[in-house]
Amino acid sequence: MDDVTRNLQEDPHSLTRDLRAVVDDADALLRHAVRDAGAGYSDARARLEQSLSAAKDQLATMERAVAGRVRDAGRATDTYVHEHPWSAVGIGAGIGVLVGLLIGRR
């Protein structure tokens, strides 16, 4: 199990919290920009840049983890189809019939 998967399983709301922090920092930046362009503005801008950087890093890491899992699932499916071709054909036909029935009901 990689670090991203472990982190998401231990704390599934971490990405939500990080994105909330970005939104809060952007809100603070806008409030300070409207009021004045003093020290509060530069502090809010620095926090926003920091939050954006952290969120981008975490999203990129999650994207790589998801891409790896999708690639692994594709390989497993390919292996299964090569080992059990007639089962795969039967499963595909069954799914096709179900989709056809669902579409036909409309």
TrEMBL record:
Keyword hit for Transmembrane: yes
Cellular component terms (Gene Ontology): plasma membrane
GO molecular function: ribosome binding
Keywords, in A-Z order: Cell inner membrane, Cell membrane, Membrane, Transmembrane, Transmembrane helix
Limits of the DUF883 domain: 15-64, 77-106
Cellular compartment(s): Cell inner membrane
InterPro entries referenced in this protein's UniProt entry, alphabetically: DUF883_C, DUF883_N, YqjD/ElaB
Membrane topology summary: Single-pass membrane protein
Protein name, UniProt field: DUF883 domain-containing protein
Highest taxon listed in the record's lineage: Bacteria
Annotated family: Belongs to the ElaB/YgaM/YqjD family.
Transmembrane segments: 86-104
Pfam (any one): DUF883_C
Lineage per the UniProt record: Bacteria, Pseudomonadati, Pseudomonadota, Betaproteobacteria, Burkholderiales
